[in-house]
Amino acid sequence: MTAIDYQGATAESIKHHYDVSNDFFALWLDTDLTYTCALWDEGDTLESAQKRKLDYLIDGARAAGARRVLDVGCGWGSLLERLVRAHGVQQAVGLTLSDSQAERLRELALERTEVRVENWLDHEPAERYDAIISIGAFEHFARTGLSRAERVAAYREFFERCRAWLPKGGRIALQTNIKGNNVQMDKQTVRDLLFIVDIIFPESEIPALSEVLESSEKRFDVVHLRNDPDHYSRTCQEWFDRLRANRDQAVKVAGEENVANYERYLSSTVGHFRNRHLGLSRIVLEAV
């Protein structure tokens, strides 16, 4: 394994977050356990806004009706299910580093779906994919403390592999948190951001948008790009409200400390996006 293999968050750090308990996350996420920013429109519920997000990225990647689609960071499988059951994909492959997520997906027994507990660095597909979608995983591809050049190198490795897995004209639909442009923070905001890095998402680093674009150059053209921090602020508020409404059961499932940590994480993140300390990019890229 090369030095680049160690630039992202380790499997242990991913498990630290996502393996808290499937039952815990089910108390405050939507019914499909979609743990990423929704795409809101007037009159939406969390469930309908999450499906709109999935459909937006599927359409952007031109994945509907495709023969083979890769989901990098598949979570609990809401995108995989949407691909095969609503968009006619013949085979959907999902990668996760969470045993709990993989266990739930195997229990669902989705047709035409393969789930692997595997880092994208170790992924060696037998044949190419028609499209790739990655939602909320990019933030784990570079570890806290790296220089900008090291982060860009780690991200470039991802894009180079994706380019090898796609034909010319094949697309990636990518959704990721990005650093915001408002760097004026009070002390509490700084403390809350450090808390999230140390306690909630250890070893992970949110990229700058410029780092994402730079690392994809010479391999992909940008087709669409939008920044939706307000959508994530609203999503986190909905998650926080649901967690508070189910707090007693959450404590029984995950313990008081975990629940208190997630309350602080979700409530502070509402403000981080609203105040533009963080952004949320949805990017569609096409292989050149």
TrEMBL record:
CDD domains: AdoMet_MTases (cd02440). Keywords: Lipid metabolism, Methyltransferase, S-adenosyl-L-methionine, Transferase. The lineage of its organism: Bacteria, Bacillati, Actinomycetota, Actinomycetes, Kitasatosporales. It comes from the Bacteria. GO terms for molecular function: methyltransferase activity. It holds the Pfam family CMAS. Belongs to the CFA/CMAS family. This is Class I SAM-dependent methyltransferase. GO terms for biological process: lipid biosynthetic process; methylation.
